[in-house]
Design a protein that fits this description.
By secondary structure, the protein is of the alpha/beta class. The chain contains nine helices and eight strands. The strands form two sheets. It has a five-stranded parallel beta sheet, with helices on both faces.
Length: 219
């Protein structure tokens, strides 16, 4: 059983997916962490993220793996555990750029699908239901008002020690939305059979309960 959860940044995908996976006893797959891993390697290597040729060439000397420790997902780049380094604004911004490179998306696709073969999975990202697991029997697409999303992301950044103006967070999200929705390969769009959920006025538990009801009906 694979459950796909897609949507833009700030709609609560990660929080909801983790809770749903825990409720069901499934593996949790954050596909965005893989793109952040590539972004981390790009930054470490001093490669310009907008230089498609350099980024693509970097993939030949890169290994990215996911492992699970006590149920928590960990990301390893070239054997180094980097999970705690993937949520900085710098990595986030770079990930948004490199994720639009077709070669990067194709390179990460089999890695994501291999994780899906390990068992039942709750996978979240931006093209999980349309590209990574198009045959997933249950798909959700989360949306929320842009201002609400910016406020949520701003609170996350402040809590993580990355203080910045909320206006800057709003601009960052707007830029990511534009790149994600307009990229040439696997753009951010709902799968035709995805169930839409607007999280603007719903709390996490309410979203999870809606999903659990759909899961129960599907099993």
């Amino acid at each position: 059983m694979i459950i796909a959860i897609d949507g833009p940044a700030g709609v609560g995908k990660s929080t909801v997916a983790k809770l749903l996976a825990a409720r069901l006893g499934y593996l949790y797959l954050d596909t965005g962490a893989l793109y952040r891993a590539i972004a981390w390697k790009v930054l470490q290597s001093k490669v310009q993220p907008t230089d498609h040729e350099q980024v693509t060439a970097l993939l030949d000397s890169t290994s990215v793996h996911m492992q699970y420790h006590n149920g928590a997902m960990q990301v390893l780049v070239d054997g180094r555990e980097v999970t705690g380094e993937l949520r900085t604004p710098e990595v986030t911004g770079t990930a948004s750029i490199v994720s639009a490179i077709p070669a990067v998306r194709e390179w990460l696709l089999p890695i994501q699908r291999q994780i899906g073969q390990r068992g039942s999975v709750v996978a979240e990202g931006r093209d999980v239901g349309t590209k990574v697991f198009p045959s997933a029997p249950l798909k959700f697409f989360l949306e929320a008002d842009a201002t609400v999303r910016a406020e949520r992301r701003h609170r996350e950044l402040v809590a993580a020690g990355h203080g910045r103006a909320i206006e800057e967070t709003y601009q960052d999200l707007s830029g990511r939305d534009m790149r994600d929705r307009n990229r040439s390969i696997a753009p951010l769009i709902p799968a035709a059979d995805a169930r839409p959920i607007d999280t603007s006025v719903l709390n996490v538990d309410q979203v999870v309960e809606q999903m659990m009801a759909a899961v129960s009906a599907a099993l």
